[in-house]
Amino acid sequence: MSTRSTQTSSVRDRTPVREHWASRAGFIAAAIGSAVGLGNIWRFPYEAAGHGGSAFLIVDFIAILLIGLPAMLAEFAIGRRAHRNVIDAFGAGGRMWKLAGVLAAVSAFWVVSYYSVVGGWVIRYLLESPSGAYFSNPAVHFTGAASGMDAVFFTSVFMFITIGIVAFGIERGIELATKLMVPAIVVLMVALAVYAATLSGAGAGYEYFLEPDFGYILLNADTLIPAAVGEVLFTLSLGSGIMITYASYVEKSESLVADGLAVVIVNTLVGYLAGLIVFPLLFAQGVKPGEAGAGAIFVSIANAFRTLPAGEVLGVVFYLVVLIAAVSSAISLLEIPTAYFVDNFPIPRPIIAGVIGLGAFLLGVPSALDMATLELFDSVASEVLLPIGIFLVTVFVGWVYGREAMAELGEGLHERLLPRCWLWHVRIVVLVAVGMTLVISIVSFTDINVVQWLS
To answer: Quick count: other Cβ atoms within 10 Å of Cβ 335?
Structure first.
């Protein structure tokens, strides 16, 4: 036996056996669980309210079709082709491309730090629901709950739950947890949407949310487009390496196209359901959209529970489901950096997850102490980190991976035209759209007027 073959065998022996999803349904549930979370229930109505309601809905839907789904398939192709963590998956394109993987892992770490703060809010509301503690004055109650040492404490509880699930691994931890989320949250949100339809202000809420407003789109394109694309990237878990990492645990026989469609459909459904709940509640209570802020879902839903028979019980059920949704997204974020260290270092997964989770918690403390900091962290993620991340994904898949990505997407399909069309769509349409959005997002983030910046 040659020296080279001996070395190759030695390296293979030291490579840990990677986990796989126990079933195709497990992967789809986990991917949906990552996408369907607070980004739909909390952030989607918040972004829509601040950007014209129905106008945001139109741009968001276009962004999902033209950017979200093709970009998700690009991340799927990278992950399953490499069967490695996001950093090593990008490393297949060369050492410089590993930096794109590092950026993705850092982005996930950044997002989970402040995302856990919002998860902490959910835990607090869940525990307070049996007594109806937030019923008397939901708006004032949320102001007190959103920041301070109590928020830090509940953030730590949320992070502890997240660490615990990630520590158990793919099949016994992430897959098992996320299989509980999707059916429960959809059923409950449908029930709440039906209730919201009975309110006196429902018609005005539907009009604001659903009636097309093309004039608003034209007048506010510089802020509306990056907000909508940022929302798509955030809710579909793109740009942070989540879908790359999750797809790395997928078997070759599965159709990535079918799985991607399932994730996008359910994610979009839940986002629209959230709007059908929140906007009727806002208008019924005389709250002007755009003024409710990040706490819209907590203030509005709390008011609804206050007026319902057995509102305390409904509050427990609702915030329990929201908590499951939030955790399913948080574990996907924490899994990104965890997967890298599990793949490359002989350290037990629970220790790795615990150390990284602790670091994310410490980074999130400023967001727990001050809402302005949380909003800043969210802006950095949605307007800078995620757009840069998905831009690098499109360049990598379109012009570096190329044929390999097309071949990977073709696995599980009976024809080859779709992968070819998809690759050129990523190379041109998605790349240009994400590139333009990246420029607009950065300009918006730095508060520079576009016209002055170009002149």
So the answer is: 31
Among 301, 392, 422, CA closest to 100: 392
CA separation for the pair 247, 81 (Å, rounded) = 9
Whose structure tokens read 């150390």? 355
Q: Does residue 345 contact residue 205 with C-beta atoms inside 8 Å?
A: no
Residues 79 and 343: beta-carbon distance below 8 Å: no
DSSP string, 63-86: HIIIIIHHHHHHHHHHHHHHTS-H
CB atoms within 10 A of CB 92: 17
pLDDT in tens, 91-108: 988 889 999 999 999 999
Give 364's contacts (C-beta < 8 A, 6+ positions apart). 112, 113, 114, 116, 117, 155, 159
Q: Helix (H) and strand (E) counts for the chain?
A: 26, 0
Quick check: 403 pLDDT over 50? yes
Q: What is the pTM of this model?
A: 0.84
Task: Give the residue with greater pLDDT, 365 vs 82.
Answer: 365
Count of Cβ atoms closer than 10 Å to residue 434 Cβ: 29
Mean pLDDT to the nearest integer, 367-383? 89
453 token code pair = 């910046």
Sign of CA dihedral 299, 301, 304, 310: negative
Distance between CA atoms of residues 198 and 190, nearest Å: 13
Task: Quote the CA–CA distance of 23 and 450 in Å, as a whole number.
Answer: 48
Q: What does the longest C-alpha to C-alpha distance in the chain come to?
A: 81
> How far are the Cα atoms of 89, 91, 92 from residue 396, in angstroms, in the given order?
11, 11, 10
Closest CA to 48 of 322, 199, 39: 39
Burial per residue of 59-88, b for 16 or more beta-carbon CB atoms within 10 angstroms, e otherwise: bbbbbbebbbbbbbbbbbbbbbbbbbbbbb
Among residues 125, 177, 172, the alpha carbon closest in space to that of 331 is found at: 177
Task: Return d(Cα 108, Cα 114) in angstroms, integer.
Answer: 11
| CA–CA separation, 427 and 423 (whole Å) | 6
Nearest C-alpha neighbor of 392 from the set 98, 65, 61, 169: 98
293 sits in the region (left: phi over 0; alpha: psi -120 to 50; else beta) called left
**Residue found by looking up tokens 């070759």 in the block:** 252
